[in-house]
Amino acid sequence: MQIIRSIKKMQVISRQLASKNKIGLVPTMGFLHEGHLSLIRKAKKLSDKVIVTIFVNPTQFAPNEDLSKYPRDEKGDIAKIKAAGGDIVFIPKRDSIYPDRFETYVNCEKITQTLEGESRPTHFRGVTTIVAKLFNIIRPDVAVFGQKDYQQVMVLKKMVVDLDYPIKMIIAPTVREKDGLAMSSRNKYFNAVQRKEAICLYQALKTAKQLVKSDNVNETIKLRNSMKRVIKKICPTAKVDYIAFTDFESLKITKKVNKNTICSLAVKLHGVRLIDNMKMG
Ligand code: AMP
Question: Which of 34, 65, 195, 257 could be bridged to 261 by S-S, CB 3.0 to 4.6 A?
Answer without folding.
Answer: 257
